[in-house]
Structures are given as structure tokens and as C-alpha cells.
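Q: What would this chain look like folded?
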Amino acid sequence: MSGRIAQGMTRLSRSLAIRLHETSEHAMSQNIEDYAMIGDCHSAALIGLNGSMDWLCLPHFDSPACFAALLGKPENGFWKVEPTGIYQVKRRYLGDTLVLETTFETESGVCRLTDAMLINTESPDIVRIIEGVRGSVDMSFELVIRFAYGSIIPWLSRTTERSFRAIAGPDAVTFWSSVPFENKSGSSWNRVGEIGRIS
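A: My prediction, written as C-alpha cells:
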């Protein structure tokens, strides 16, 4: 994950962002400057201060987005990982990379979310790692995949307790998690509470 990104890749500001947030229903109230970019030199994703990946086009920059909540509504697709309740957030890029590190601090503890798109892989690969730093933090996870900028709801097929495929015509993505998760509404997946608890 710490490999150098191609020299021609534009980097966002490395300044530290600190904001106070409260978990709420997903709303498109973030300013564009609250987003950070990760990429693999072929595509890119935009991630808000609240840990929500609200833009992702795969497999190329000019491909239709499968997360497009940035431009529309939550129903247009997003992938959010954030603490429940009130938290402070700090964010930075690691070294000279597009590996994004977001630190969430709550009353009960601190956790770190690391986001990256792996480079030189056969197909696009996004990695989101949550690790405990101090104390314990209840985490919330929600994933809504919508192809063609939110206009196509994919067919979801669970492959194991911790993975599934989303398919719509020629478009498909595979999701895998190290913790079990549940189907919330037939078209989105989530996990809240103890399984999301890190210490």
C-alpha cells in the first residue's frame, strides 16, 4: 500500500483536516473541499471527512460511477465507514502516496481508517482497513452499490458470510470483509455495533 504513485498523478493538499461530526442519516452536505482522493492511475475515488466514499468510477476515470452520492442522493451509491455518535476527525496522506489515513476520535477511544487503491493489479482493488488505536469505538458500516451513476440497482449474490458480488449486465464488483455483515434492504449492506467494535 505504500508504493509510490506515478509522478504525473495530481496530489491533493496534505494539510491536516480536523472537524467535529455527529453520525446521522447519510446527507450530501459535505463541501467539495471535505473530500480527499485515492487512485490507482486508472481510476479514482473521493472520500468525505465522514469516511463516506461518495464517488467511484471503475475501471477507468471515464467509466460510469458505481458510487455517485456526491452528485445526487445516497441512493446513487456510497460506502461509508464511521464511528457512531459524535467524533472528531483528522486526515492525512501517508508519505508521497495517495494512501489516505483518517483518524476518528470519540469519547471512548480512537480508531484509524486507511484507504487505498492498489496499483499494478489485474483489476481495480480498493482496500479500507480499520484499526483500533486506543480505547474502544463502535463503528457503523454501510455500502450501497449503484451502477451507471445510480440508475441501475445491481443483483446481489452472497458468496460467503463475508463476501458478495453485485452484478448488473456487464458491470460487476466483488466485496469482501474480514467481519460478517448483513443485508439491510435487499440492495444495500451494513453492519453496526459489536462486530464493528474495535479495541
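Residues 1-19, 192-199 have pLDDT under 50 and may be disordered.
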